[in-house]
Amino acid sequence: MKSLYSVAEIRSIEHALAATLPAGTLMRRAGEAATSAARDMLAGHKVLVLAGPGNNGSDALEVAANLAGPDTDAQADVTVLYFPGAAAPSVETAQALARARASKAHFAGTLPLGRDWSLIVDGLFGIGLERPLAGAMRALVDSINELGRPVLALDVPSGLDADTGAVIGPDGVAIRATRTITFIGDKPGLHTFEGRDYAGQVQLAPLGIDPGQRPPAGACLNEPALFSLHLAPRRQNSHKGSFGDVAVIGGAKGMAGAPLLAARGALFCGAGRVFVAAIDPLTAVDFAQPEIMMRDAQEFDSGDGTLVIGPGMGDSVIAMRVLFKALEGTAPLVIDADALNLIAASPDLQGRLAQRAAPAILTPHPLEAARLLGVTSSVVQGDRLAAARELASRLNAVVVLKGSGSVIANASGAVVINPTGNAGLATAGSGDVLAGICGSLLAQGWEAWEAALGAVWVHGAAADRLVAHGSGPIGLTAGELPLAARAVLNALAR
Question: Which residue, 156, 340, 394, 408, could crosslink 416 as a Cys pair with Cβ 3.0–4.6 Å?
Answer without folding.
Answer: 408
